[in-house]
Amino acid sequence: MSFLHDLIDLDDWNLWMTIVCMALSPTWWFVSARFEYHTRYITKLFGNKYTACYVTGVITLALDCIRDWRYHILMAEQPKWAVLQNDTVEAIGNGLTIFGLVMVLSTWYQMGYTGILYGDYFDILKNERVTGFPYNVFNDPQYLAFNIVTFGTSVSHGSFIGLLLSIYHVFLMKTIAWLEDPFTSMIYEKRAKQESLKSDANGHSNGVGSKSSSVHKSKSKRNAHSNGTNGVSNGAIKNRKG
C-alpha cells in the first residue's frame, strides 16, 4: 500500500474530476446518439439533420477537450514513477503519442466530421465502406488512436496513475465499440433492405408500365387492322354498287 501511496495522490481532487470527465464524453456521445436515432428530436430542434449533427458533435468535442485538459494537468500534478523516469522511456512515450495523433488525423481524413461524429445516427450515411488507412489495418482505429495517445502521454510523463487511467480509457472505448458496432451494422442493414425494397418496387412499376404499353400497342394494332378491314369492305360495297 505504501508503494501505491507514493505513486498516487488520492487527495488530489483533479484525479476524481479526470475520472469523471473521461467517462462523461463517451456517455454523452452514446446517450445523445441513441436519443436522436429513436426520436429525431435534435434534428427537429435545429431544423435539419446536418446542423443538428454538427452542433451535437461540437458538444462532444468540447467534452473531449475538457477531458484532455484535466488529464494533462493530472499528469503534471501526480507523483512520478521512477521506473519511467529516463530519456528512452520518454522518447517511446512521445513516439506513441505522435503515432496516435497521426491515426486520429487519418481517421478524420477518411471519415470526415459526420463520419466520426454521429452521422450514422442522424441518417447521414456513407455510400461505401471506408478502406483507407488506418481502417485497412486496425479495427475501430478511431478508438484505438485515443487509447494510444492516452497511453503515450502517461509514459512520457512517467505517471503511474496515468497508466492506470489509460487502461480505464481502454475499457471505456471497448465498451462503446461493443455497444456501437452492432447498432451501426443494423442501421446500414436497414438502409440496404429499404433500398432493395425500393428497387424491387421500381422494377415492378416499370414492368407494369411496359405491360400496359404493350397492351395499348396491341389494342392500337387491332383497331388499325379493324379500321383497315372496314375500309376495304366499304370500298368493295361501293364498287359493287357502282
Query: How far is the first residue's CA from the last residue's CA?
Result: 130 Å
| Count of discrete domains | 1
Helix content: over 70%
Q: Approximately how much beta-strand content do the residues carry?
A: under 5%
Order of helices and strands: HHHHHHH
**What's the average pLDDT?**
84
Q: For the report, how would you describe the main beta sheet?
A: none
Radius of gyration: 33 Å
Beta-strand segment tally: 0
Overall SS class = mainly alpha
Please write out the topology:
Blueprint: H1 2-7, H2 13-39, H3 41-46, H4 49-77, H5 87-116, H6 141-156, H7 160-241
Helix pairs in contact: 2-4, 2-7, 5-6, 6-7
Question: How would you describe this protein?
Answer:
The protein is mainly alpha-helical and 242 residues long. The protein has one domain. It is built from 7 helices and no strands. It has helices at 2-7, 13-39, 41-46, 49-77, 87-116, 141-156, 160-241. α2 packs parallel to α7 (160-241) and α5 packs antiparallel against α6 (141-156). The longest helix is centred in the C-terminal third of the chain and has 82 residues, at 160-241. It is elongated, with a radius of gyration of 33 Å. Residues 229-242 have low confidence and may be disordered. Pathway: Phospholipid metabolism; phosphatidylcholine biosynthesis; Lipid metabolism. Residues 214-224 have a biased composition (Basic residues). Residues 202-213 have a biased composition (Low complexity). Residues 13-33 dip into the membrane without crossing it.
